[in-house]
Design brief:
By secondary structure, the chain is of the alpha+beta class. The protein has three helices and six strands, in the order βαββαβαββ.
Length: 138
């Protein structure tokens, strides 16, 4: 059993429905070849480290899946080929994993999708800020 994770970036001009339909199309390509989808996560619109095709943001989609054998990697090649043909896809990357589980990705752990609370942006004040006796500091 081979495990993979795949991330692809969709143009920010695409609607959420379009992003979901693209993800479903690529999942269908994998499942037709016998892949088992372990995780499918939509990370939303996030900023890019650098501009790609004059876009500073993109929709991020994360897939974690397993393939029954190394020969089934042709499904991954076909999926990537289909992504290169789609104009809305800015980038894609597939990485092989030594082992995989069904736990959420690091990005999904930071963000609580049910409430929309982003844990990475919350501040933790373990100790209160020092107060100055007598008002403002000198």
């Amino acid at each position: 059993m081979s495990f993979y994770e795949h991330i692809f970036l969709v143009s920010p001009n695409a609607t959420t429905q379009k992003v979901e339909s693209l993800a479903d199309d690529y999942v269908n390509i994998l499942t037709n070849e016998g892949a088992v989808i372990l995780r499918k996560e939509f990370w939303g619109v996030r900023p890019l480290a650098y501009q790609i095709r004059k876009h500073a943001h993109a929709h991020y989609v994360y897939l974690r899946f397993s393939l029954p054998s190394k020969e089934a990697y042709e499904a991954v090649r076909e999926m990537e080929r289909q992504m290169r043909l789609e104009d809305m896809i800015l980038r894609c990357s597939t990485m092989a994993l030594e082992k995989a589980d069904d736990s959420p990705s690091v990005v999904a752990q930071k963000r609580d999708y049910e409430t929309g609370f982003d844990r990475s942006r919350s501040r933790k004040f373990d100790s209160p800020r020092p107060r100055f006796a007598g008002g403002a500091p000198a």
